[in-house]
Task: structure prediction
Amino acid sequence: MVAERGRRNGAQAAHKRGRGVTRDAPDADNAPTAEMPAVDAGNGAAGEGDAVRAKAIPEAAVARLAVYLRVLSGMADQGATTVSSEELSAVAGVNSAKLRKDLSYLGSYGTRGVGYEVTVLVGQIERTLGLTRKHKVAVVGIGNLGHALANYGGFPGRGFPVEALFDVDPDLVGVPVGGLPVSHLDDIPAVCTERQISIGVIATPPTAAQSVCDRLVAGGVQCILNFAPVVLQVPEHVEVRKVDLAVELQILSFHVARRADIAEAAASAQAAANGSSSDSRVPMTKLGLGNGLVERS
Ligand SMILES: NC(=O)c1ccc[n+]([C@@H]2O[C@H](COP(=O)([O-])OP(=O)(O)OC[C@H]3O[C@@H](n4cnc5c(N)ncnc54)[C@H](O)[C@@H]3O)[C@@H](O)[C@H]2O)c1
Result:
């Protein structure tokens, strides 16, 4: 099948370029994104068809830009007109050097003694993240997760209106969820094309995810947010983001365990310095159990 071949070839090409077909670990500071449209440092109005391209922005910086945007929007709502890098970095939970580096990708360097103009910075980040236009979203798989996503009111206000819902369950098809009737799986290509859906969210069981993904791609969807624990094959022009809360929890577990190891090692060192032999505990790191995911006796 031509479509099948195209999909596999695209995946292989992406793999050869080192991009991978899905992006499971977007937080590598060195992982570049595709080139982003340039925005200028003044009013930020990048002309249509602007031939100038900004340098690639690392995935992790893109994620942080979204955080800065949320923080800055809150500040703007409260009437703030300028913000210093220290202020913004403190609220965003990022060190200020990293923040300044991130904002430099936008061509935004702030003014010494004044900082950044909030509305200008909001505009620059929105343009860079492609948020100056709406991205219509379809959710496929209206079970526990799909219901929550369809009912969540926070997406439309941030430029992501949910405009289509799909499921295979005949009991769900035609039933409104979050005010939108659920359509049948088979209608994905036609409905997505007609409603110009640009983002497809997959919340089906893993066994169904690839065929759902293929239907979304056939409907012209160019971005997939995949909650199913499976790696998807997509053509080169389609972006996939995989969400896995278990991975996030494991990362948190790692950090908690690391802090415990450090505290334990410090306590042992202190005990040794005091010449105390009462603490016979051995730091886990010394036992080669640095990930801390081991029951302590
Ligand atoms: N990434 C995460 O952190 C995370 C968290 C929770 C769930 N999940 C995953 O999200 C998915 C959904 O979880 P859930 O708890 O909502 O499951 P669920 O069983 O409640 O819902 C799945 C829905 O998908 C529908 N479905 C099944 N096959 C389909 C198909 N071919 N086309 C369209 N719809 C189809 C079912 O009818 C059902 O309504 C699962 O893959 C789960 O592993 C991921």
Summary: The longest strand covers residues 162-167. The chain has a mean pLDDT of 79.
